[in-house]
Amino acid sequence: MSRGGKQSITDAIGDVTRALVPTITEPEMRQHVCEAFVASEVYSVAWIGRYLPERDDVVPNASAGIAELTNEAVRTQEITVRRNLVDDPPCDEWRDHALEHDYRTCAAIPLVYEGTLYGVLQLATDRPRGFETTEQESLAELGVTIAYALDDAESPANTDRDESAEAAEEMTEVPIEAEQKRRLYETIISSTPDLVYAFDLDYRFIFANDALLEMWGQTYDESIGNTLRENGYEPWHAEMHEREIDRIVETKEPIRGEVAFEHAEHGRRIYDYIFAPVLDDEGEVEIIAGTTRDITERKEAEEALQKSKERFRALVTASSDVVYRMSPDWSEMHELEGKEFIADTQESTSDWLDKYIHPDDQERVTAAIDEAIQTKSTFELEHQIEQVDGSLGWTFSRAVPMLDEDGEIVEWVGMASDITDRKEYERELEQTNAQLKRSNQELKRFAHAASHDLQEPLRMVSSYLQLLEQRYGDDLDADATEFIEFAVDGADRMRAMVDALLEYSQVSTRENDFESVDCEVVLEQATENLRMAIEEREASITSDELPTVSGDERQLIQLFQNLLDNAITYAGDEPPTVHVSAERRDGEWLFSVRDDGIGIDPEKTEDIFEVFNRLHAPDEYGGTGIGLAICKRIVMTHDGRIWVESDPGEGTTFSFTIPDGTGGETT
């Protein structure tokens, strides 16, 4: 299984290039190339097919794994890439092969040198984003290098042989001419970005390629024959390599390491190096050959990736949410950290739907997933889930598609929140609302009953008492007449209280019944309704400019009317003076109704908004004790607040708020 993280693509190509150097036959060359590709673990499958011009066909020549031939690469002589071989294969056989050999993306690279096609290199990888533009360009250049090497390895006689003779001869090593070998080595060594060099046993450089000379910032003549120190290596660095050379001479085994060195142009870089022994005819070390690769970007990428993983892991650890990863089509869950809400899984699993999702919600979940995949949009859904203890819970799940450069979904990363408590609260709230609705309905029925069934007996009591007074008034003494008057007054007050209670029960407007209400018109109508009381008490009603608000006009008229009536009633002996004002603050309108009446004890201001709560005896001031309770109910229905500020003998100010639902317009 390729992991795509052991080496970079550049590393893999460098290994393949070096694999060409020690080969002396064409079959060896092909085989070494394939083995180097697979050994890099960047690619799952490597395969080279030899092109037969007489048949216009490609036949297997060397492989490390099994792959399909891409004929289009032969036809176009350009790299051909096929993606999503598991999720969207050309045929079922290709999907089975891709799953068996663990790859998802495949590329065919034509091996062309000076217009001649020598074969096709086919590579496969499990990296979802494999074979992007930069990688294709590097592989195309490598294809030319391999083709050149194959050109040098072939003899003219090879071109007209039949397939069986060719296959037989490929098992036999054919020597390469010395001049051809020299050209091959020079081409490979000069084209590789790696540093290639050799030491003698006195630690002196006897060879250095262009890449190494560039790193030193020196010419070949300036460098060859020098020791490590003479070529700018720090003492500790030179001593380390000298010890390694001594060890190789002793053990005849190669040594590999990493070290930092100052590049002449690019500054401090990190290098991966290998020193290997070159043996003479007697098996003794005569030269130390070395190759060094710049791995700075890889090390930085690894470090950045590690830091990213650490940050992500810290985020996952700190979060109380479930974190999961899904395949592009959601057929497999790759990872799940359940946070003790649902069962963890670190292994890929395909039965996650039945394992975690309640059967009643599976159809909804799959429908939402299909929609998200089709539109490549975020998946969001609330659904039931089976918790660790086997009980049912609720989760809000949200997953985001990760796209490649072609806009294809690579995987999904999601988080899920435990909303079981919230759902339970919502269920209880629904039950409470249902009970409240039933209570309100019962209250309305009671109010209607009070209106019709209770008031009729009160009217009868009042009527018969008045009839008794009219018919037998001359025969009654003063006490009897006074008793009758008390009874009639009590019956009338009882009827007024029943009417007020009915009015209180009917204050229940829904917000969607609200409309724009001009408070200037509301105040004018409330004042008109109180015209007789205003004239009788010679009251003065003034106001500032009042706004337009969203509300129930009938109820707002009643609100203003009750507050004005309260100010007139408790004005004392002097003619009442009442002022109405409004100001906008913090997204709402603050209304005030201020009078200069008898005032209220501050300790009793909270009680006056309760039903039937009176601060004065009925014979002292009239009223039912429900008017201010109705005011409070109206304000609350409009999502506002009401309060009072007062001191005895200093007047009273009633204030209430109404949300600004009209942008703050005034009339």
Automatic annotation (TrEMBL):
CDD domains: HisKA, PAS. The keyword Transferase applies. It is an enzyme of class 2 (transferase). Residues 255-307, 379-431 form the PAC domain. Keywords: Coiled coil, Kinase, Phosphoprotein, Plasmid, Transferase. It catalyses: ATP + protein L-histidine = ADP + protein N-phospho-L-histidine. GO terms for molecular function: phosphorelay sensor kinase activity. Residues 415-449 form a coiled coil. Its EC number is 2.7.13.3. Residues 181-252 form the PAS domain. Residues 449-662 form the Histidine kinase domain. Residues 154-173 are annotated as: Disordered. The keyword Ribosomal protein does not apply. This is histidine kinase. The lineage of its organism: Archaea, Methanobacteriati, Methanobacteriota, Stenosarchaea group, Halobacteria.
